[in-house]
Amino acid sequence: MFRIPFLILLCWGSAINAASLLPLWDSSYSGDYGGNGGKRFSHAANQQDGPITAIRIHIDSNYIVGLQVRYGRHWSEYIGGSSGEREEIFLHKGESVIQVTGRYGSYVQRLVFITDQNRTFIFGNDAGTTFNAAPIFKGTVLRYFTGRASSYINSIGFHWGDYPKNVPNCAERGNL
Questions:
Q1: For 19-28, which contacts have Cβ atoms below 8 Å and span 24 or more sequence positions?
Q2: What pTM was estimated for this model as a whole?
Q3: What span, in angstroms and rounded, lies between the C-alpha atoms of 154 and 135?
Q4: Stretch (H or E) spanning 55
Q5: For residue 21, is pLDDT > 80?
Q6: Distance (Å, rounded) from C-alpha 144 to C-alpha 56?
Q7: What CATH superfamily is the domain 26-161?
Q8: Which of 2, 23, 120, 163 falls between 20 and 30 A from 99, CA-CA?
Q9: How would residue 48 be classed by pLDDT, with cut points 50, 70 and 90?
């Protein structure tokens, strides 16, 4: 006997199309910018803590050494090496990163974060191949980072999506 899966019957019987079962948000990815070395890292799980509210960057005279990001009120694990000077930025309530430019070679050499409140934060050395990362979908923001790291940040990628609305204390921009 031929059986039609329950989901198909449900959709067919109630005139629900497949597109209506997809999430109501848009996401995109930019990267990996940099070299192939190092160990892979991902902050995908961290985005559940809320929007990006602060970024710590360790830099030396040539490279981006390390990265740590605060999602909501919680800091991610530190990624990268132990050398370099630490610099950090704190975003205003409701502020989001909407573009990242930079430079890379075998390692990431420069990161420039641009926010939706027209603030620009520059880290690192102005050498290497240039990249420009921005979301594909209008109104989406930087949600989390991925890449590869060793004693430096070897490569970096940027994941864009809607500003989180289903995270405790994040129902509206500015609740952090």
A1: 25/140, 25/161, 25/162, 26/136, 26/137, 26/140, 26/161, 26/162, 27/137, 27/140, 27/143, 27/159, 27/160, 27/161, 27/162, 28/135, 28/136, 28/137, 28/140, 28/159, 28/160, 28/161
A2: 0.81
A3: 22
A4: strand 52-59
A5: no
A6: 14
A7: Jacalin-like lectin domain (2.100.10.30)
A8: 23
A9: very high
The per-residue pLDDT for 66 is: 98
Neighbours of 68 (CB within 10 A): 18
For residue 85, CA distances in Å to 30, 66, 128, 161 come to 27, 10, 20, 30
Q: Where are the domains of the chain?
A: 26-161
Bridge partner residues of 160 (DSSP): 28, 142
Residue 139 burial class via C-beta count within 10 angstroms: exposed 0-12, middle 13-18, buried 19 and up = exposed
Q: Average pLDDT of the chain?
A: 85
